[in-house]
Design a protein that fits this description.
CATH superfamily of the largest domain in chain A: P-loop containing nucleotide triphosphate hydrolases
Number of helices of chain A: 10
Oligomer: heterodimer
Distance between the termini of chain A: 50 Å
Number of domains of chain B: 2
Helix content of chain A: 25-40%
Largest sheet of chain B: 4 strands, mixed
Number of helices of chain B: 18
CATH class of the largest domain in chain A: Alpha Beta
Mean pLDDT of chain A: 78
Helix content of chain B: 55-70%
Radius of gyration of chain B: 31 Å
CATH architecture of the largest domain in chain A: 3-Layer(aba) Sandwich
Structural class of chain B: mainly alpha
Shape of chain B: elongated
CATH topology of the largest domain in chain A: Rossmann fold
Strand content of chain B: 5-15%
Low-confidence stretches of chain B: 88-105
Chain lengths: 361, 486
């Protein structure tokens, strides 16, 4: 949906939306004195439309939703994050991966402005100051984060209002319905199962229509059906234009959901890029082969470190210095091949390789 | 600001709109009144059983009179029971027996009677022959007491009636030895403070006094002398005189003795309860936010200053609700019972301001402690010193009520953590508190609260996101004063 910015005036505090794909009678006129409210209305109305013409004092869309420049954070003698640079493009789903205690949570807390970095600059949605997160930022923490005694709707209303979003009733109803949680309004959090409260937690994070959404392990405790439901919901939020930071331990989830991935280990950035870029950086170290019927693989191959059979294929793990094309040549000479495939390392393998190597060293 | 208000509203609802709060609101006065009236109620359920007291009267002159006194007492008891059965609905049973009492009651007995704690068992006396009375007989009587046949036995030595000549010299400053008569003995299984022993002591002294006087006084004037000995004048406490608007010179109103005791104590207890009912939920609320990682979500929307301010505001509002309910109930009850003069209107505004400050001080300390730990158990050891400070006035309240303007009372009321309880209590005694003391104590309290809240806020800020083992007190103070916090 192309967004056309009309004339911007610093003095105006209202915005006029003209939805050209709609008949004249259904065009919207929006008034608001607050930027955050405007953005909510905009993303809300713009969803599903083809063209919008906007006038008013809309803050410019930043290219990067989050920009970290040389940030370092120490606690006592321990350095949690060391000289970190990171740019998260607006509208992307960005994966944060890394083992426990690697500095992920500290980085997220600095983006949320719960912590101030010792040095460096944190810019979130165009703002580089503030002592608490912008109202345009939504956050789902790793575990729980809900008052046990409160009723579902009261709790969601409370979290929405804390983000300055006061007319939130319709949004709450919409989300409860969307996640199959109708009729939960008056249930107390303590009566919900882990998966159910995880859904409520998710709604709490998105109910104020954030522009930047930070999800820390959003799928923990969900069965496959609900996991799929939530995955779709995240894609929908993203389709509204929300930038999503997605922190997880599960590499296959990150691989499936994220366009770009950032990995932090011992406070340092060790990976940053698209999944494809990262996979290119890390050469394949495994090949999958199948010999023609009757033919067998040679017992020992100088390029191969380890060999095992899985699902009718032989998986050959290459030695560190070995080259796959040499192996192919050797195999072609010694046996009759039917299938030879270079396996790209999964994010999981790369993760293990980095974390494992560092731990060994 | 809207964030602070949003947080405050939720905090208020979480504190007030819970069953636990409503139950506490309803139960607290019942418990406190129950504490006062329950012993009386329980005693009311007891059925009177005669208690036999054996008397070894070595003077061989006193027994009949003791017997008569016991019979008088038993008769009065029976009449009282008849009357109180007829009017059980009265909360303050007015005993009609007062006039019939031979022995003048002291204040303690009056209070006991008002609370329904009076001894209700009739006494039967048994005369023990004095010939050959010795240790064997003492043992036998003790055995009977053990078996429950006998309640006690009294040994009256013959010497109690022995004359002690007085001369013009030793009358003016009699020696202690001259004042002391030969001792009697009460042998029983009950407590040293038992009512029966006190009754016997009073009656015996009355009789012995009359006997001894009759040796030197004309028997015709003896009854008059005895009566005069029992007569007393009261020394009523009155306020200072001043000239009112109409130009008349009048005395300031002074509360009577019961209100000057109960009212200040009630005011202090109310302050204590309000502090407790506000600070305890705060401890639980912060601990829940910390352990369930709600704090993380909240800190993603508001900074720790806004969070703490909002929570404190909601908490103060909750505590004011407690105050309005209790004081409103108390005042309504006082007016209904016809004690509207006793309502300490002049104390109420001070109370509200002191209460707000006290709740802010203690709630923020409780918040800081809850933020520093991960379990209630850990919080409790850190709270011990805080509780001691909160409860300090409870240990000295009686001294303060008796001497509201003593150096100790004044000093304690200038110590900010105790100021709210002690100062309002002093004001409620009806004593004239110099105005500068009220103002100074308030100023000190404001400063103390500000310092307390600031230090607590800094500890809260560091503690709330910290996991792991509970810090020591000194570590928490270090957090408060470290420069780069988070």
């Amino acid at each position: 949906m192309p967004l056309a910015m009309g004339s911007r005036s610093e003095n105006l505090s209202s915005v006029v939306l003209a939805v050209t794909s709609l008949p004249k009678s259904q065009r919207f006129l929006l008034f608001s004195t607050k930027k955050a409210d405007l953005f909510r209305e905009l993303t809300y109305f713009s969803h599903g439309c083809t063209t919008l013409v906007i006038t008013g004092n809309i803050p410019p869309m930043t290219v990067h939703a989050v920009q970290l420049e040389g940030i370092t954070k120490t606690f006592g003698t321990a350095t949690a994050v060391r000289n970190l640079d990171l740019q998260i493009p607006s509208g992307s789903i960005y994966g944060f991966i890394g083992p426990n205690g690697s500095g992920k949570t500290t980085t997220i807390r600095m983006i949320l402005r719960i912590f101030n970095p010792d040095c460096g600059r944190v810019e979130v949605l165009g703002q580089d100051t503030g002592d608490c997160a912008d109202e345009r930022v939504g956050y789902l923490p790793e575990e729980r984060g809900l008052y046990r005694r409160m009723k579902v709707r009261d709790l969601l209303r409370y979290y929405a209002r804390l983000k300055g979003f006061r007319r939130c009733e319709d949004e709450i109803t919409w989300w409860l319905k969307r996640l199959g949680a109708e009729g939960w309004d008056n249930r107390r959090i303590e009566s919900l199962s882990k998966g159910m409260s995880q859904k409520v937690q998710f709604i709490a994070a998105v109910v104020a229509r954030p522009q930047l959404l930070i999800l820390d392990e959003p799928f923990s405790g969900l069965d496959p059906v609900n996991l799929e439901l939530l995955r779709e919901a995240i894609q929908e939020v993203r389709a509204r234009g929300t930038t999503i930071i997605f922190s997880t331990h599960e590499m296959d989830v990150a691989e499936r959901m994220c366009e770009r991935v950032f990995m932090i280990h011992q406070g340092r950035k060790v990976l940053d890029g698209t999944i494809a870029q990262i996979q290119q950086q890390y050469t394949a170290d495994e090949v999958r082969v199948r010999t023609a019927p009757g033919a067998v693989l040679p017992e020992s191959l100088p390029e191969v470190e380890q060999q095992e059979t899985r699902g009718g294929f032989s998986h050959l793990k290459l030695r560190r210095s070995a080259r796959a094309d040499q192996l192919l040549q050797r195999l072609a000479q010694s046996t009759q091949l039917e299938h030879f495939e270079l396996l790209r390392p999964s994010l999981h393998d790369i993760f293990l390789r980095i974390a494992g190597v560092n731990q060994n060293s | 600001m809207h964030k602070i208000l949003t947080i405050a509203v939720r905090e208020y609802q979480a504190m007030v709109a819970t069953k636990a709060f409503l139950v506490a609101i309803a139960l607290m006065p019942i418990l406190m009144l129950g504490g006062a009236w329950l012993p009386g109620l329980l005693q009311g359920m007891e059925t009177p059983t005669p208690r036999t007291i054996a008397v070894i009267d070595n003077t061989e002159q006193l027994f009949d009179q003791i017997q008569r006194a016991a019979e008088d007492r038993n008769r009065t008891l029976e009449q009282d029971r008849a009357v109180s059965r007829a009017s059980t609905s009265s909360a303050f049973p007015e005993s009609p027996s007062a006039a019939g009492k031979a022995v003048v009651e002291d204040e303690d007995e009056q209070a006991k009677r008002a609370l329904g704690l009076e001894e209700i068992h009739p006494y039967l006396l048994e005369k023990v022959p004095v010939e050959d009375f010795g240790d064997e007989q003492r043992l036998a009587l003790s055995e009977r007491i053990r078996k429950g046949e006998l309640y006690a036995f009294i040994e009256i030595p013959a010497e109690v009636l022995q004359p002690r000549p007085l001369t013009p010299d030793n009358i003016i400053s009699p020696s202690a030895e001259l004042m002391q008569l030969a001792g009697m003995r009460w042998v029983a299984q009950d407590a040293a403070l038992s009512d029966a022993r006190r009754w016997a002591e009073g009656v015996l002294n009355q009789i012995i006094r009359a006997r001894r006087l009759s040796a030197s006084i004309n028997p015709l004037v003896l009854p008059t002398v005895m009566l005069e000995l029992d007569r007393k004048s009261t020394l009523e406490s009155a306020g200072l005189y001043f000239r009112d608007e109409a130009g008349r010179i009048v005395s300031e109103e002074k509360p009577n003795e019961i209100t000057s005791l109960m009212l200040p104590m009630g005011i202090m207890m109310l302050m204590f309860m309000v502090i407790m009912m506000a600070a305890q939920p705060m401890l639980e609320s912060v601990l829940e936010e910390k352990t369930l990682r709600i704090a993380e979500v909240l800190l993603g929307s508001a900074n720790s200053r806004q969070l703490m301010t909002g929570k404190l505001l909601g908490n103060v509002a909750g505590s004011l609700t407690v105050f309005v309910l209790y004081s409103g109930g108390g005042i309504a009850a006082a007016i209904w019972q016809g004690y509207s003069d006793s309502v300490p209107w002049h104390v109420l505004p001070w109370f509200v301001v002191f209460q707000v400050l006290a709740v802010m001080l203690y709630s923020s300390i409780f918040m800081a402690i809850a933020a520093s730990v991960t379990q209630l158990r850990e919080a409790q050891s850190l709270l011990l010193p805080v509780w001691m400070v909160v409860m300090m006035p409870l240990f000295v309240w009686f001294n303060i009520i008796r001497e509201p303007n003593s150096t100790m009372s004044t000093a304690i009321s200038f110590f900010p953590p105790s100021t709210p309880m002690v100062m309002t209590m002093r004001m409620a005694t009806g004593a004239t508190i110099p105005w500068w003391q009220s103002v100074l104590s308030m100023a000190l309290m404001v400063v103390g609260t500000a310092v307390g809240v600031l230090v607590a806020a800094r500890i809260y800020r560091v503690g709330i996101l910290r996991q792991g083992k509970a810090p020591r007190f000194t570590e928490m103070l270090q957090w408060a004063f470290q420069r780069n916090q988070v």
